[in-house]
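Thread: "does anyone have the structure for this chain?"

Original post by V.I.:
We have the sequence but no experimental structure in hand. Need at least a predicted one for the grant figures.
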Amino acid sequence: MYRYIVFDVETPNYANNRISAIGITVIDGERITDSFFSYVDPETHFDAFNTRLTGISAQTVQGAPNFAALWPQIEPLMSSGILTAHNAVFDLGVLKKCLRDYRISWKPSVKYLCTVQAGRRLLPGMSHKLNVICEHYGIALEHHQADSDSRACAAILLHYMQSGADVNSFIRTYNLN
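Reply from O.Q.:
Generated one for you, tokens below.
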């Protein structure tokens, strides 16, 4: 049984190379054991589209830590299990770019699980958008809010586990270099 670090990031603009919020939900065994949320000062501009989508603006993140200041706090958590996200390649890509841009050395690669990819195998024939899967399972969701999205993704993973699916067969490796 693995420990899953389910995370979601929100971004301030189309570049998707900075984080404006991060939500982390931890699954140990088959239950949620911890969570974390923070706004993040992306030190860049906000596009109107992203602000409308997430509700996060420059004013929202005023006084929040930048990624480099937040990393020492979240790195032990991010290093403690299989990184998991809904459309994981997007969230991992943003994380990779933040690590690169802030010149933070971490790991050359990480193990990850994508609940979209797992869902396509486990629930074929339906949309795998986060809000659709949440509606299917009756999971509460405030979409595009990093804490809510990470909790919802964790709940989806727990549904997959409780249905008897071998979720470990969906673990892949993501290159951070």
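V.I.: this helps a lot. Residues 8 and 154 are 10 Å apart (CA to CA).
O.Q.: and The radius of gyration is 16 Å.
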